[in-house]
Amino acid sequence: MIVITGATGELGQHVVERLVFKVPPKEVCLAVRSVHRAERLSGYGVRIVSADYDVPESLSAAFSGAEQVLLISSSDIGRRVSQHKNVIDAARAVGVKHFVYTSMLHADTCTMAFADEHRQTEQAIRASGLPFTILRNGWYAENCRIKLRVAMLRGVLLGSAGYGAQSMATRGDYAEAAVAALTGRTPPGRVYELAGDVAWTYADMARELSRLVDRKIDYRNVGSAEHRNILTEAGLPTAFADFLVDVDRAIAAGELMDDSGDLQKLISRPATPLPRYLEAMLAT
Ligand SMILES: NC(=O)c1ccc[n+]([C@@H]2O[C@H](COP(=O)([O-])OP(=O)(O)OC[C@H]3O[C@@H](n4cnc5c(N)ncnc54)[C@H](OP(=O)(O)O)[C@@H]3O)[C@@H](O)[C@H]2O)c1
């Protein structure tokens, strides 16, 4: 049995929709917090069980008979280490043979605020003795959607990343990497740095967007403090503005860039090029 946590989330759904075409669906079990949210996915013939990262007994029950567990990192920022440790403990208790975790790019060195939770989770996985694969997912291309939509409205793409570049890929690409790990394509104990094949600066993105919409969109780089002010004055909650400014600081420092090629090797095809993603975004 392959158990997938967080399967009702955006990434999880992509994983399920691909995995069911690679293994018999009856061998796939979705361990989800809200069973009703998994209703659509149940149509694939997979098993659905209730499991909450905060309730260890629910995890032990959900993992009964599991050979592999994919832990999709929790969205509950600040509480993730204890939640993830509950998952690791439950997997160890039932003797899972392969534990796969979706971490973040360069989790060992990244200075972004939330990297520490991924670092601690990776340490806990190693300490558990479970055979593991760590998939350090880069930035989702989908994260740029709102920024790019605003840029289209205003004719200016605003950021504070200077000319730092980021190697984004789509959730679908990262999901395919997870499926590769769950179908025997990764030797145990390996860490993969997953990222798009081409690194893009915001200036590159503004240029590409201009080309696609046939209208000039410029990149305006500002300092971190000014960026934060502009975002909060536009109505964003302070914590979210701080997060976005921190992301740009990390991009400027090259922390969201990677040229290992791990993603395309694992999925045996190039990652979705950003222009293809932008075209799809404009079509919706
Ligand atoms: N690489 C990036 O750019 C990037 C960006 C954003 C997030 N992330 C990370 O990647 C993960 C997956 O991304 P995503 O887009 O799929 O996020 P998402 O749509 O927010 O999915 C998060 C999943 O975590 C589940 N979850 C939260 N608390 C839980 C709990 N106590 N017990 C059981 N399940 C719980 C949610 O369950 P419900 O469906 O019931 O809510 C949901 O299925 C995120 O959680 C986050 O850690 C990465």
How would you describe this protein?
The protein has twelve helices and nine strands. With 284 residues, the protein is an alpha/beta fold. The chain folds into two domains: 2-137, NAD(P)-binding Rossmann-like Domain (Rossmann fold, 3-Layer(aba) Sandwich), CATH 3.40.50.720; 142-166 and 197-257 and 269-282, UDP-galactose 4-epimerase, domain 1 (Alpha-Beta Complex). Helix 3 (56-62) crosses helix 4 (80-93) and helix 9 (224-233) packs antiparallel against helix 10. The structure holds NADP nicotinamide-adenine-dinucleotide phosphate. Residues 6, 8-12, 33-34, 37, 52-54, 72-76, 83, 102, 104, 137, 139-140, 143 line the site of NADP nicotinamide-adenine-dinucleotide phosphate (NAP). The site of NADP nicotinamide-adenine-dinucleotide phosphate has 24 residues, from helix 1 and strand 5.
| Topology order in helix (H) and strand (E) letters | EHEHEHEHEHEHEHEHEHHHH
Number of domains: 2
Total count of helical runs of at least 4 residues: 12
Radius of gyration: 19 Å
Instruction: Give the amount of beta strand, in percent.
Output: 15-25%
Shape call: globular
Largest sheet: 7 strands, parallel
Short description, anyone?
With 284 residues, the chain is an alpha/beta fold.
Give the SSE map.
Layout (H helix, E strand, L loop, with lengths): L1 E4 L4 H10 L8 E5 L6 H4 L4 E4 L5 H7 L5 E5 L7 H14 L4 E7 L10 H14 L3 E6 L7 H10 L1 E4 L11 H12 L7 E5 L7 H12 L4 E4 L2 H10 L4 H15 L9 H6 L6 H9 L2
Parallel strand pairs: 1-2, 1-4, 2-3, 4-5, 5-6, 6-8, 7-9
Helix pairs in contact: 1-7, 3-4, 4-5, 9-10
